[in-house]
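Check this:
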Amino acid sequence: MNIIKRWLIVRANGALRVTTRRPSLRYDEISFRLNITIPASWGCEAGTVDLSIPEGTVIVQPEEMEGPEIE
């Protein structure tokens, strides 16, 4: 088995990005650490991944945040 470690970053507007290093987050982003286990018999062809939120997880909507005023 191969384990791939990545960070999934989600922006407030729904945009996603993935990085291999610990991310520097903007004020409108959250990150999730992903440990993806891939069976050794799998090739390098990409497939579809179904991500779901575990039962009992509480989703909190952030309040509207305003950036600093620039003069």
